[in-house]
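My main concern about presentation is that the manuscript never shows what a single data entry looks like. Each protein is reduced to its one-letter sequence and a matching series of backbone shape codes. For the editor and my fellow referees, an illustration may be useful. For illustration, here is how one protein appears when written out as sequence plus structure tokens:
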Amino acid sequence: DDLKSRKNQTHKTVGGDKSGRVVGGYTFNELGFRGDELETYFSSKSKLLTFGCSHTLGVGVGNEETWPHLLANKIQHSHINCGIQGISNDTISRAVLSYTEILKPDLIVVLNLQNDEYDNDNLYRNQLLIKNYLENKGIRLLTNVIDEYLGCWEDEAVDGNHAGVLSNELFTKNLYERYL
């Protein structure tokens, strides 16, 4: 239901960010995600999809300040940011399987959650499922756990609970240098 209410919309607040201070608000495309419009995405030669929780969505920062947007610009890909606040690893995995069929990306980056030691088995199974599925499709996958992202935390977003622009820039730089 959340995605339905976001289609082609701009919202002042999203999820835990009730500040209303994100410049330009949270803009969403025809699917209810941040990132490029579908026409731009499909007309591009190189396509990136990103999946994760509120840190991927970019709660507390403008669209151009999210790590998916920064990464897409750095590698010259169009992108759709499939991040959703409060999402679980299971839902992330199902979203990867579903949206890959529709959007046919060249590269997928997943920011998985790792909540506690009991979640490790579930995390491993989800990563294996996604990895094997995308290998069979010939789509490159980069996966990271939330601790790698939080390790780049240098500043806070306007909501005070998520990483800010400097943190997103550092995470993007680390992704690029390590994998791309």
The first strand starts at residue 10 and ends at 11. The beta strands are 10-11, 26-27, 34-35, 47-51, 78-81, 107-112, 140-145. The CA atoms of residues 42 and 103 lie 8 Å apart. The chain has a mean pLDDT of 93.
